[in-house]
Write a structure and sequence with these properties.
- The chain is mainly alpha-helical.
- The protein has one domain: Rhodopsin 7-helix transmembrane proteins (Rhopdopsin 7-helix transmembrane proteins, Up-down Bundle).
- The strands form two sheets. A three-stranded antiparallel β-sheet has the order 3-4-5. Strands 1-2 form a two-stranded antiparallel sheet.
- The longest helix is centred in the last third of the chain and has 40 residues.
- The protein is globular and about 80 Å long.
Length: about 400
């Protein structure tokens, strides 16, 4: 099921009661002959334990390790840039900090542990962390998408109703707290229903599995879990994507399609350009999010209605690729900020100069995150800096 696959439990790993499991379908990879070998007992209930060749394990490890490092460092730098520079403390940037916190959480507290389990089919991190890891996974994903939704609503109100008062610091913090509270509520079933159990395999080895066991049955057999997964998919993907598409479509028509009456002043032109830059950056963030998570949700739908798909010999690597793409969304946002926003770009340069990544003495020659000469000359002409439309 979807949320089990999001964590260390793959749907193909559990299909009957573990306590009474007496039939297996175990697939091993014969390195010498380069083929999969099946060792079955009755082969009625699939229990797949895929062992990849060492070079494939190294390849996947490099891919996941690189993603975790880039996501963690990039999002921590974004947080540092906004919190240490007063000029960066706008409503949109506060929401971006919240988004970075969620992305850093999933990369540090979830991905590494899940990947280790998916690669080895063994959960060595204990009973509590089985629950906590799943809780963090759903919590961070929910917080990310709801933060993106909050940004789209803020941009929509700021551009479509410019005379309305903007959100203040307290209101922004209140919305952020509500996002985390609602996300915690959505992810709370994982703390309740996930558990661990040791299972003996036909080859004599004992492995620990982390899986969900709902009141009406265990994973892939529970109608409650199926309903929860469908609700989760609707609340954290389809509804937010539809809402953000509508909001940014209206904003795009307003910024790029409407014609102002009379002669435009330089102040008005600068204000519109500033808003366009922010909206373009957020549209790219939303599109990347939708693309990264679409295969994961499609995989969930396909395996729910066609469970035989999980018996495909290469399903482990297919799922690893889908899982990597979904989790890699956490590393793209800092790259997008650096690419499309000059102040974030200068902030990243300043951070790496502080760390000595580009040699000594660079920090003294590097500009602060304040406006450059052109920005200073335009300060009186661009009110967007004051109301938060420019980051």
């Amino acid at each position: 099921m979807m949320l089990d696959e999001l964590g260390p439990t793959v749907a193909s790993n559990q299909s009957t009661s573990l306590a009474d499991l007496d039939s297996f379908y175990v697939t091993f990879y014969d390195v010498e002959n380069e083929r999969y070998v099946n060792d079955s007992q009755n082969a009625t209930e699939p229990f797949q334990s895929f062992i990849l060749p060492w070079w494939r394990q190294i390849l996947w490890t490099v891919l996941f390790a690189g993603m975790v490092v880039v996501a963690t460092v990039g999002n921590l730098v974004v947080i540092w840039i906004v919190l240490t520079n007063k000029r960066m403390r706008s409503v949109t940037n506060y929401f971006l900090v919240n988004l970075s916190v969620a992305d850093a959480m999933v990369s540090t507290l979830n991905v590494t542990f899940n990947f280790t389990y998916m690669l080895n089919s063994n959960w060595p991190f204990g009973h509590f962390y089985c629950k906590f890891c799943q809780f963090i996974a759903v919590l961070s994903i929910s917080a990310s998408v709801f933060t993106l939704l909050a940004i789209s609503v803020d941009r929509y109100v700021a551009i479509m109703s410019p005379l309305q008062p903007r959100l203040g610091k307290r209101a922004t913090l209140g919305i952020t707290a509500a996002i985390w509270a609602w996300s915690s509520f959505i992810s709370s079933p994982n703390l309740i229903y996930f558990t661990t159990e040791n299972v003996s395999l036909p080859d004599g080895t004992i492995r620990c599995v982390c899986y969900s066991h709902w009141p009406d049955g265990m994973t892939t057999r529970s109608r409650l879990e199926y309903a929860y997964n469908v609700l989760f998919m609707v609340l954290t993907y389809f509804m937010p994507i539809i809402a953000m598409t509508y909001a940014y479509s209206r904003v795009g028509v307003e910024l790029w399609g409407s014609q102002s009456i009379g002669e435009c002043t330089q102040r008005q032109l600068d204000n519109v350009k500033s808003k366009r830059r922010v909206v373009k950056m957020m549209i790219v963030v939303v599109v990347i999010f939708a693309v990264c998570w679409l295969p994961f949700h499609v995989y969930f739908v396909v395996t729910s209605y066609y469970p035989d798909v999980v018996s495909y010999p290469h399903i482990q690597e297919i799922y690893l690729g889908i899982y990597w793409l979904a989790m890699s969304n956490s590393m793209y946002n800092p790259i997008i900020y650096c690419w499309m926003n000059s102040k974030f770009r200068r902030g990243f340069k300043q951070f790496f100069w502080c760390c000595g990544a580009f040699g000594g003495g660079g920090l003294a020659r590097h500009r602060a995150l304040g406006p450059d000469r052109t920005d200073r000359s335009m300060r009186s002409l661009s009110p967007s800096r004051k109301n938060g439309t420019s980051m």
